[in-house]
Amino acid sequence: MQLYATELMGAETYDDQGNFVGRVREFFIEPADQANRIARFLLSRGRFQPLIARHDQVATVAPGTIRLNCSERALELYQPNEGWLAVRKDLLDQQIIDTKGRKVVRVNDVDLTEQRNNGNVELRLTQVDVGLPGAVRRLLQGVVSASMVRKMQRKLPQRTIRWEFVNLIEPDPLRRVKLRITHEKLEDLHPADLAEIMESLSAAERQGIIASLDEEMAGRVLAELDERLTTQIVEKLDPEKAADILEEMAPDAAADLLAELPKETSEELLDEMPGQEAEEVRELLAFDPSTAGGMMNTDFVFIGDTATRDEVLNWMRTQDLNFDALDTVVLLDTSAHFSGIVPVARLLLSAPEQSLTEMKLEPLLSVEADADESEVFELFDKYNLRTLTVVDEHQHPIGTIAVDDVVSRLVAK
Amino acid sequence: MNWESIATRVEGMRTRGTDLQKRLRGLRRRVALLLAVVGPGIITSNVDNDAGGISVYTQAGAQYGYTLLWSLIPMTIALYVTGEMCARMGVVTGKGLSDLIREEFGFRATFFVMVAGFFVDLANVVAEFAGIAAAMQIFHVSKYISVPIAAVIVWALVLRGTYRQVEVVFLAACVLYLAYVVSAIFAKPDWLEAARNVAIPSLHFNAGYLVMLTGLVGTTIAPWQFFYMQAGFVEKKVSVRQYPQARADVLIGSVSCMAIVFFIIVCTAATLYAHGQRSITDAAEAASALVPLAGKWAGTLFAFGLLNASLFAASILPLSTAHVICEGLGFEAGIDNKFSEAPIFYWLYTILIVAGAGIVLLPNAPLWKILIFSQVGNGIWLPVVLIFILLLVNRRDLMGEYVNTLTFNVVAWVTAIAMILLTMVLTYTAIFPAASLPAP
Hints:
By secondary structure, chain A is an alpha+beta fold. Chain A has three domains: 2-162, SH3 type barrels, CATH 2.30.30.240; 182-286, MgtE N-terminal domain-like (MgtE N-terminal fold), CATH 1.25.60.10; 302-412, CBS-domain (Roll). Chain A is built from 19 helices and 21 strands. In chain A, strands 2, 3, 4, 5, 6, 7, 8 and 9 form an eight-stranded mixed β-sheet that branches. In chain A, strands 1-12-13-14 form a four-stranded antiparallel β-sheet. Chain A has a three-stranded antiparallel β-sheet with strand order 11-10-15, covered by helices on one side. In chain A, a hairpin with a 4-residue loop joins strand 12 and strand 13. In chain B, helix 2 runs parallel beside helix 12. Chain B has 18 helices and no strands. In chain B, 54% of the residues are buried. Chains A and B meet through helix 3, helix 8 and helix 10 of A and helix 5 of B.
């Protein structure tokens, strides 16, 4: 039978002799043991110390009444345990992340099903109720009879989330470990979705999530977050962890983030990062954020313009290239000056022996690093660009600006 | 004069120059830090001076001259203390007040706070639209034109804007309160006498005076403002590190709000009270009465101030209410969401505006009764909300090192109890108006 935590809160509990023992005030799950089983029932007895009934001591469960299969003397006294998840305190009215619907929701009620074993009944948590039926039950519990409430809720639209898709939010790292809360499910989300979820949480909760993600995912999420939040989060992270995350980020995103931090903090983090990555980021930081240099990414693929298609493809196969940034290659002439760009698609479709010079996009476009961002926007708009090369004063390419950098700048305006 | 001394002089000037630059840069940095946070405190405190508030201040000045001015200082303290607690809670927990009530006191408590809040706020919204109607009538615009236009402006402002844009509009509205300062200057008051009355309390023990005092306090601290302010800081993602700036925001708000009250009372005291026109009952009437006494501009600015205040409060109240209810009951909320993402939020917002404006447009709308109901409602709701706040702000598991200190608790509880007593008196006199007849 379908049961609800609300209906069972305050249920009168009787022992095997039919003697009244106490009222149910809380349910505990032991995540270390089984993730969805109600392992213990807290029974309050007025001024006496509360008792705990284990799941194998429960004979029958019905709304308002619970019968045990043992005597009162077999029950333990209640001792608080951080490793138990309390349904009422930790779940009801709290926010959780719905990893399937990709948003933060508040729990109204918890749905349970009975599972009969020989001699006892176990309650399994199947889903959390975040819709109107749960709200109505919470409101009317104890005022109107349970059967009346059940009749009313049938007409209401359901909104529930299966327990597998529920990700609890626990800011305290020690408790998180004890409750076996992992954020593996969150790592399956798109970084942009997770960033949006985090924006609706409190600072401590955001911190908890970032701390438990792997560095790569944490970096991707930070790149998507509102910059006010990224600085708050990074400042509070352990510098070593923060440096590890920055290392995983694209240099331009890392530079954008560091530019927002106080000077001492960003220096400290750069010192923690490995030499080459730190150097790239430092170079980017030297540019004014509102110039082409401030927008560019130094992580780009460049090739001599005399190479043929096959030479290039063979070379590219052997390199550990970043696929996200790989839609264009930049061409250099023999004196390392900028000589054009070739979209990878054009590269793929041309003849094996064709040289890259013949595939160049016309007209030849580039900006100097100190060009204002508005100039960049105009070029992208006018020529429908996807990539624009940034050059230094000697016409050496030093980075590229991708269309997604332009879009996010324009949206931020 | 030799080269050396010139060189040292130049060097000295240069270092002084860079010193100054450094100091300017430091100042600019601090201002920038403050500006990033500023908003919720200033906006909320200024919305306190809404249609109902301005009516009360006007009456206070017209009936008792400068003699009630001393109450502004304790009121500033009360406003700051209560506001600061909410700002602190928002900054430290990163959660809105209704979120916290829900998480700590459960669904049922939250539900009743929300339902009560909805109706009280609706009454307040009606009062604001009534203020708009009254102010525009002074400019000879019929309420059948002014109120629908105002409703559309208010509705669109929030629906079309992002939080940042809306905040800028609201902050600009705060500046428009300066109309009352100009109005007061036109009234040529006795500034010295006014200043003396601010500093030196003069208690008169007659019923009318005490009721007026109660009214002043009661309209200044409204229950919904706590929710709005806290949500504002949460929505701005103000961090604990920025708490000093948030506190400064609340302080600036409380002081500027009270400064405006000062000018309103001074303006009416110098004109209406001085010329014996002491039976003024509302702000619109005062604005018309000002014209022969202090000139056309004083009256116009006074009416403009009322319009601005009413329009301002009418935009914030529905927004705040919809926010609070959705937050508490677990629906998506916030104007950074689209309509389809937060339908209940936008529907509540729309209903509050349509119903609020609609009631004012009813041909024989009992506006006077609604105004009283809104004040009574605020009075009943305020103690409940204050007690929730005090219980929450003292929870170490929520607030950590930022729980109330003993001194703060004493001030806050005294404020809360005083507010509760005063609003009970106000509520009583609002229900039994016979008690509030001004003494001659």
